[in-house]
Amino acid sequence: MKWLLGLGALAGTAVLGVAGYTFLVLAPGLPDLDAVTDYRPKIPLRIYTADNALIGEFGEEHREFVAIKDMPKVMKDALLSTEDARFYEHNGVDFIGAGRAVLADLRGGFHQGASTITMQVARNFFLSQEKTVNRKLKELLLTSRIESALSKDQILELYMNQIYLGQRSHGFAGAARTYFNKSLKDVTLAEAAMLAGIPKNPVRHNPVANFQKAKQRQEVVLKLMLTRGVITENQYDQAVHEKITVTGKQIFDSRADYVAEMVRQKVVEEYKEQAYTSGIRVYTTLLKADQDAAYEAVRKNVMAYDQRHGYRGPEAFIQLPSDSEERDDAIDDVLKKHPSSDTLLAAVVTEASPRKVIAELASGETVTIDGDGLRFASAGLQAKAASALKIVPGAVIRVIKDSKNRWSITQLPEVEGAYVALNADDGTVRALVGGFDFNRKKFNHVTSGWRQPGSSMKPFIYSAALEKGFSPATQINDVQLSQTTDEVLKWDPRNDDGKYEGPVSMRYALAHSKNVVSVRILQAIGVQHALDWLQHFGFSKDKHPANLTLTLGTGAVTPMQLAGAYAVFANGGYQVSPQLITKITDAKGQVLKSVPVTKVDESARVIDARNAFITDSMLREVTRSGTAASASSKLGRADLAGKTGTTSDAVDGWFAGYAANVVAVAWMGYDDPKSLGGREFGATLALPIWIDSMRAALAGKPQIVRAAPEGVSNAEGDWMYQEWLNGGGVRQLGLEEAPPAVITPPAQ
Fold this sequence. Notes:
Number of helices: 24
Largest sheet: 6 strands, antiparallel
CATH topology of the domain at 63-241: Penicillin binding protein transpeptidase fold
CATH superfamily of the domain at 63-241: Biosynthetic peptidoglycan transglycosylase-like
Domain Penicillin-binding protein OB-like: 311-415
Pathway: Cell wall biogenesis; peptidoglycan biosynthesis; Glycan biosynthesis
EC number: 2.4.99.28, 3.4.16.4
Strand content: 5-15%
GO biological process, one term: cell wall organization
Shape: globular
InterPro entries: Beta-lactam/transpept-like, Glyco_trans_51, Glycosyltr_51/Transpeptidase, Lysozyme-like_dom_sf, PBP_transglycosylase, PCB_OB, PCN-bd_Tpept
Helix content: 25-40%
């Protein structure tokens, strides 16, 4: 008995000693609870379209803060069932739960941890993961303090938003987006159980790293939920057998990588590093439907051009080892160097013949390509194919799957494309695609790609001519300059098609992109007048030549600049400034900055309404009977207007145009400028992108018929300024031996 009393006294002394050490030595050095009482989670910068589609996220941690009142019940039930079933009953340390865990382990049942959610909060916020007595004692002290300072709901809210869940995801809302590409409120019971199983080992047992382990943990969670009466037997059976699709990466609601990067740069410039952690949300002017259509149009038509010009051969070749493990490693290594480009997947050929190709994807899936799927690359399957072109085992190729799950061989295009659309009335950007693949080439061709505009520059020269007495009915001689003069010319421009039609109207000349006629017009009105006139549309003189090649588009523009210039014709003569951001908010939705969208007014007028109206009528002729006539037939609208553009040797292909209140520009070309081909023009390169994009942008919009403004008359066969009636103005050009004198308007 004395022995027992002595042992008890010794134990009591030890307890008192530990308690004294804890409160006198460890307690004073504990951190303040500000991190939990004033919780400020690191929430990434997120960027949205005007209709709330997520297009970008930037930050080290994928996290979406969700208040406890908005946390789905199924998620809370799954988590509490596996991590802390008595959370709302204990005071931070669950002695009953710990005892049950020990018994369960002894019986060989579920392996349950004794750490409560509050203890995990204390550890995750303030302590390291080292397994020492000191760390455990500190954890108990902090647990007690947290329980005293916060309500149970507040503690659970902290845990569910802060816990690390693998793949850079913090909190269950961020994990739901990362693993299932859905909002937390939309997860199923099966998905919630899989998420609840991750905290035990978030690095190795998340569904991307090891789906089999994640599935096993999910079934453990579901069994615990069933045992504790949270779900029924029927719910358990359905959840266990539910097929779960794991995306394994952040997939946005709309593909707008170039816009997201533009916005990121602006926000970081203003908010510095805080931009990545404070939960800033930026709302852009993009419309999801317009952006999606533009993205698909650029990719589809760039690939169509690439397919027209033939197969270039595999991207790389490797030797396939005979050992299966070494073979798998070699395939994995080479495919890491050839990442996917959306639906264009890299694969390593393992078998090849003229009738069938078998290849392995980065996912480990083996695909078989045969029949029509081999047609594009058939030249590389011939016995006598050149070595660089030949498809053999070890070749790295690109494959794509169609809507019927059939595989085809394709290739990554070398050519680039771009598209931008603005609201012509206020300048807001509706869609922007800066290139074929942002992850491959981050250069934004819409904002930074200075290229020759070709014939898409002609409307501005024709607009300048209206101010000098020309009208759409003016007859101009479509004959080479050398045929109408005895002078020896240093430059004798040609029409692209080599055809010359003699006297044609200015309207016809623009519709059919007559080079010689355009040069004659510029020669008549004067290069200096034209350069001065270009500034009304936002062009800079220093980007354009002070010679007659100006009218053929030998200067430099960006697609964004060209879109803003065409907007002047589209809206009746007003200059607009492109606008991309409308609102920036903090994590709580409080507005940090608001940029109101305003429509143009008279203060923004840069050309006379008459000029805009008449030029618009000529641009409509381009889509009615000219080089872009396919646009009207394919879109079924009579209010389309625009101009194709093809530079010398077809280095650049353009289409700039508008309808309703949407103005858009499409472009195609190589980053390292070279010819796109002798049979390629703006109408074959850029116009298809424009048509496919505008089909969505114009859906549901009524066709617009413009009313003629004061000061114009439809006389003598076409529109003209009233002051040029009754024999005034320029009636013909280049039809006499000497060119006529330039006529200036009478004083107003």
